[in-house]
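ERR on first pass: missing label on line 2. Operator R.T. fixed the label and resubmitted. Corrected input:
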Amino acid sequence: MSARDIINSAREKNRSLLEPEAYALLAAYDIPVLDYRLATSSEEARKMAGEVDFPVVMKVVSPDIIHKSDSGGVKLNISDEESAGRAFEDILENVSEAVPKAAIEGVLIAPMVTGGIEVIMGMVRDPQFGPAVMFGLGGIFVEVLKDVVFEIAPVSREEAESMIKSIKGYPLLAGARGSRPCHIESLIDIVTGISRLSLELPEIEEIDLNPVLATPERSFVLDARLLL
Amino acid sequence: MSDNKQELRDLNLLFNARSVAIVGASTNPEKLGYEILNNLINMGYEGPIYPINPKADEILGLKAYPSLSDVGRPIDLIGVIIPGKFAPGVIEEAGKLGVKGAVVISGGFREIGNDDLESALVDAARLGGVGIIGPNCQGINYPANKLCISWPLIKQAGGLALISQSGTIAAALADRAEKEGIGISGLVALGNRCDIDESDLINFFGADPSTDVIAVYLEGIRDGEKFMEVGRRVAREKPVVVLKGGRTERGRKAAESHTRSIAGRGEIFDAALRKIGFEKVESIDALYDCAKVLAVEKKRPGRRVQVITSSGGSGIVAVDVLEELGLDVAPLSKGASARLTEVFPSHCVVGNPLDLTGDTPAERYKEAVLALAEEEPEIDLYLLIFGDPIPRATENCLELKKAIDRPIIACYIGGGEVEEVEFKKLNENKVPTFPTPERTARAARSILTG
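pass 2 clean. output:
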């Protein structure tokens, strides 16, 4: 499905994008996402978990659930096929109990990645100035310190680079205290990708890529919300 | 993006109007319609002025007319100071007579929820091709054409253009500019800006030859796309300083994303200003000070500031603020210290700040800067604090301005009657001078970009 098809189909159903749709759309703009699968049965879950690398993370996919963890819709660190099948059943049970009328499209399976530095990126469409792209450090840096920066689209590579370098926490990305520096070029790719996507797809009102994991070799999106 | 896209307006005919009618001119000195006519006359406006008032034959020595149509001669611009409900009719009449612009000072429109009356005003303006400033505004002042349809009367011409959604803020800054001997190139109070908006005015003053710097007070933008377009063009020509009052609107969506909730505090507006290349400031003082210094000094790379003072305390406060703002108040080299120690009396404290102490004549500032210009070429800016009654500060600063190629800005504080004279003289002569060390330090920050 093209980016356009994904948006049209979601609009027909009068909902925002589901996580797998969000990933497909991001991938269409060269924004790196993890190798993910959507399982619709515990059988599939077992098989698909084996296709991506163990350990895996499993997350419920439902238009009715915004806070997946709170409703028991997330299982981390699944290390074999049998656990994957069990996790599928658990997730369905938890979610049906927490939100009885939730429509469940399946369970998303992706490799469980650790290490690296969590950053947050996003976009909000301003009624006056159009898409404003955000970059910041994740976790407490965004929650408590609001260490983020905005730039109005279109965002050039140079502007993306100065955004990244302008936040107070930049030394952490640049390799503070002897750690290896993160791959800044790939972060720039994502910022400019968000900018392009936002300009070309005016239906997308807001984007949250939270977190994006930055490592010394590459960066990729671990969770995404795209609101229409 | 906003769907209320506004066309860019040509305001030359409005500001350079060759004839003006004041609709609602009054014989009663208590009324605004009297004060505005009086100000226009006292401004020395050179074209014909037509007071419009059906109940008077003559006002302030000028023949009055019952209506615009009765004037019988061309009218370029009108000032409107009548009850709001009559304004659309006047604009309609003006349109038929070929009037180019109207400054509608009258209130009673959208600001009190009377949206229909404002729509009627806009319709009349569009129909007749009349450009409207206002309504509900404090008017305009354009010294190049000796045109003042506003209050208070500010006559002194200078390089500062003021565009403001608040009439009081515009008037207060214009008043300050006159008192300090800087003057203005223009003042526009936007009011409800039903027609001509901030972007039209930034565009006009951007091309206006007498304007060196544009200071803008806004609470919101009428058309973001137009603002960005005009802004990016004008920012290449001259500095534009913006103070934004009020917080941005809350997101319209009930389901807020993380990004939206973080963005709700003016960050997007700030990002837009940065993208355009406008200066953002946080206070009325900073709006004035930043505009004042950028009217005289171009922005330049660099961080290093040398403070020279007669007051120890003021010097320390300046250093604190400079450092907090990320500028570098580096100590003097051994060579420079040795040279100054040799030349200056032993009670002077050689360093950065260089404290010449309270008995210093103005000449010592000049000697110090000239010596440092040779010994310390890395200094990017000199911040001089005259913290006592020190006469001849202006003469010495002007000689320095000729002799060296670094910006010189000053603080004059605690100088009594001498300060009153020197403060104005320094500013008149384009040595940007401020009343406190903090404000002087902030002005330094607006020049140095590195």
